[in-house]
Amino acid sequence: MSGQVKIVEVGARDGLQNERSIVPVFVKQELLRRLGRTGLQVIEATSFVHPDWVPQLADAEEVMTGLKRRDGVMYPVLVPNQRGMERALAAGAREIAVFAAASEAFSQKNTNCSIAESIERFEPVIAMARERGIWVRGYVSCVLGCPYQGEVKLQDVVRVSASLIELGCAEVSLGDTIGIGTPRNAARMLQAVAQAVPMEQLAIHFHDTYGQALANILACVEAGVRIVDCSVAGLGGCPYARGATGNVASEDVVYMLEGLGLETGVELDRLAEVGAWITNQLQKPNYSRAGTARLASMPVNPVMFT
Ligand code: HMG
Ligand code: MG
């Protein structure tokens, strides 16, 4: 394989949103700063959702106003509705992500509205973004199954993905929110969506609950996708999908893709150091196998010296 893969680092948002104890703002800002030094081009920063729904990210304004942007790096923030957009704009966001689901049940639990209502909510949000030249990403959750309704129809995944592109999203990220997919299902789902949305505008977003994420990514990369979401040290989970673990670890994804001959532009050792640092801050295990392997081969303990 050859070519480039865009890595979308979601640890600071998808990773931290599931943490029970509130992570101090300066730790979040320092995480973003450190991630910015690894060669990543897209680093999701936080989320302007209702603070009662995700208390961990209630400090989104502070995180964004204190953000030290690195040239050439995008820092999208999640926006669920117009109120979230107003907050994001006031805090200086230049890139946003809206999020819908392919499952009616998940849409209700996660955003308190139907899929159709969520798409309606995005219309003014994306119009506001367009007026200001703000880049917009869309998410579709539960593309391979739902924690509440079980099976999710492929046609719903295709329909919601196509709607987000029609509304003006630059790309759509297909989320296996509860990490239940397996490689053939994953590639089949991607190929079905790629019939309606150009492959270049599709991203994949696998949580690693069943340990299938890397295999799923391989199957999808072989099927042509070139945008992959992941989370440093495998942090995370969705507070509205019980039992769902973190995203696939970014270090593992970078290691695998580079091993396949694809270019990510990310420095693996630097990323592994960030994984060591944030898991030390959170007092959590590091779920990245490639990250822990790289760290073990380093002459000094990076947690002490970075
Ligand atoms: P709602 O309660 O239906 O909102 O929540 P509402 O429109 O009825 O408004 C109620 C009150 O909330 C009003 O205030 C609004 O102003 C206020 P009042 O007039 O009563 O004083 N309000 C807000 N305040 C601050 N920020 C806002 C906001 N919106 C309304 N943005 C809502 C609807 C969508 C806001 C809520 O359901 C919500 O915040 N949900 C977010 C859930 C979430 O963040 N889930 C995790 C992210 S998705 C994910 O992780 C999946 C992903 O990773 C991909 C994958 O893995 O599949 C992306
Ligand atoms: Mg997610």
Summarize the structure in short:
The protein has about 300 residues and is an alpha/beta fold. It has helices spanning about 10-15, 25-35, 60-65, 80-90, 105-110, 115-130, 155-165, 185-195, 215-220, 250-260, 270-280, 290-295, 300-305, and strands at about 5-10, 40-45, 45, 75-80, 95-100, 135-140, 170-175, 200-205, 225-230.
Structure commentary:
Strand 4, helix 4 and strand 5 form a beta-alpha-beta unit. The chain has one domain (7-246): Alpha-Beta Barrel (TIM Barrel), CATH 3.20.20.70. The two termini are 34 Å apart. The chain has a 9-stranded parallel beta sheet with strand order 2-1-9-8-7-6-5-4-3. By secondary structure, the protein is of the alpha/beta class. The model has no long low-confidence stretch (mean pLDDT 95). The radius of gyration is 18 Å and the shape is globular. The protein is built from 13 helices and 9 strands. 42% of the residues lie in helices and 13% in strands. Helix 2 (25-36) runs antiparallel to helix 11 (268-282), helix 7 crosses helix 8 (183-194) and helix 8 (183-194) crosses helix 9. Bound molecules: 3-hydroxy-3-methylglutaryl-coenzyme A (HMG) and magnesium ion. 3-hydroxy-3-methylglutaryl-coenzyme A is lined by residues 14, 17, 47-50, 53-54, 78, 80-81, 83-84, 87, 99, 110-112, 139, 141, 175, 177, 205, 207, 238, 240.
Reconstruct the topology from this structure.
Layout: E1 6-9, H1 11-15, H2 25-36, E2 42-43, E3 46-47, H3 60-65, E4 77-78, H4 82-90, E5 95-101, H5 104-111, H6 115-131, E6 135-141, H7 154-167, E7 171-176, H8 183-194, E8 202-206, H9 213-222, E9 227-230, H10 250-259, H11 268-282, H12 289-296, H13 302-305
Parallel strand pairs: 1-2, 1-9, 3-4, 4-5, 5-6, 6-7, 7-8, 8-9
Helix pairs in contact: 2-11, 6-7, 7-8, 8-9, 10-11, 11-12
Bound molecules: 3-hydroxy-3-methylglutaryl-coenzyme A and magnesium ion.
